[in-house]
Amino acid sequence: MLGPLYQQVVERMNLESKGILLANLLKDCAAYTESGNINGADIALYHLSRLASPNGDPLQRVATYFTEALAYCQVAKNLRGVPKVLRLVKTISTLEQEFVRQQFFNLYPFLKIAYLITNQAIIEAMQGEIAINVLDLSPSSDAFQWIRLMQGLKEHSPNTPCMKITITAIHEKKEVLEQMELLLGAEAKRLDFYFQFNPVVSNLESLDPEKLPIKRGEPLAISCVLQLHSLLATADDDMVKMRALSPFSPCPSHKMECFLNGLWKLQPRVLVITEQESNVNGPSLTERVYKALDFYGTLFDCLEASTSRTLVERSLMEKMLLGEEIKNIVACEGVERKERHEKLVTWIPRLELAGFGRVPISPYGIWLASKLLQSYVPRYHIHQKHKCLFICWDKIPLFSVSAWKF
Which segments carry the region annotation Leucine repeat II (LRII) (predicted)? Predict the structure, then answer.
């Protein structure tokens, strides 16, 4: 174990050396865990527990949640009943979920840009229409996005008499949808819109797009922000079968394939998708830890450059949102692993196979996004590729926004 001499050496290390040691310990621990070396993983976890800190520098903070996830892996792998009894994977209340998602919105520019680009794509696709439908597949069902859309539609068509907008929103909690309906109804009344709200209490996995209460014949826009990847979750046996049948298929999840086909049958005028630009959906635990550490380490770096370490909202968001995502990526398998991020280069053939064609992100939307970023630290920027938009930190793409049509 950690002897006095070793501890003295660690204490004399500079920040960069400690960071390298932390990263190496995390990778070693993942490799030990995957190979079944319980003793090696235990020693690495002990070292990590002394170096990681939820209140320290970015790598110490992110390492805290990877350490917890790897510790959970050890328990889950060797004592199958314990995780369920102790509820090691936490579930948080609806109120807590909405709070930490709001903090993610406040502390980063990612969702603001995603909403802005999505709304602009919808406005341009619906030019000249007096009745439109919007299907919101996002996990937060954020009223803010659709309030801004209604305001944008009013600005672009100020003389259109009583425009009709129908929003169909999906959420697992009825109370979230009820609050959303109140906020949107009040704004629609202020703007003199004819407004209809269709609440659908469901998760994405249980949803059949063709059975949604969407009026056929009216133009439809679909928005999905940081949610579509959850449909890649599948039983390990099913994944093996799909890979065996078609090892080069861009859609190894039957659930995803059916869902995208269902969306295509709705014939949307525009479908806008925002996803994490990371690749943590591999079967190897060690590889997932490597890639997730790169992605989440960068997210923690973003906060360090713009937000105080002592800000309570930052700590809560890191722990209850980012930390839980890390735990899901690292410690869960099969259908329980919902955070299966994949890069846009994988999503493109998957969506094209379903029948969708790419729509270029508009120059005006890009200009609006660039203007919005001016209020943030200059290391954020946007980058265009494949007719899509990437939101980057330095030169690292973190999120992609892509638009598609029927």
Answer: 179-211
- Enumerate the H helices of 79-142 as residue ranges: 82-86, 94-107, 110-125
Identify residue 264 by its one-letter amino acid code: W
Strand bridging mode 131-136 / 357-359:
unpaired
Tell me the three state secondary structure of residue 376. coil
Q: What is the mean pLDDT of residues 282-304?
A: 96
Determine the straight-line distance between the first and last CA of the chain, rounded to whole angstroms: 60
Cα–Cα distance measured from residue 330 to residue 337, given in angstroms and rounded to the nearest whole number: 9
What are the DSSP E strand ranges found in 162-282? 164-171, 194-201, 220-225, 270-276
Structure-token pair, residue 331: 């410690």
pLDDT tens for residues 144-157?
999 999 999 999 87
Alpha-carbon gap, residue 390 to 402, rounded angstroms: 9
Residues 303-353 have pLDDT tens digits of: 999 999 999 999 999 999 999 999 999 999 899 899 999 999 999 999 999
Phi, psi of 381 (to 5 degrees): -155, 170
221-257 b/e with 16+ CB inside 10 Å = b? bbbbbbbbbbbbbbeeeebeebeeeeeeebbbbebbb
Residues of the chain with CATH 3.40.50.150: 105-277+341-405
pLDDT score at 159: 74
Residue 155 CA to residue 367 CA, distance in Å, equals 17
pLDDT given at position 248: 46
Higher pLDDT, 251 or 169: 169
Q: Which of 381, 386, 378 lies closest to 404 in space, CA to CA?
A: 386
What does the pLDDT read at residue 14?
65
Mean pLDDT, residues 69-84: 76
d(CA 146, CA 221): 12
Architecture of domain 105-277+341-405: 3-Layer(aba) Sandwich (3.40)
* Burial (CB count <10 Å: 0-12, 13-18, 19+), residue 137: buried
Neighbours of 266 (CB within 10 A): 17
> In whole angstroms, what separates CA 201 from the centre of its chain?
20
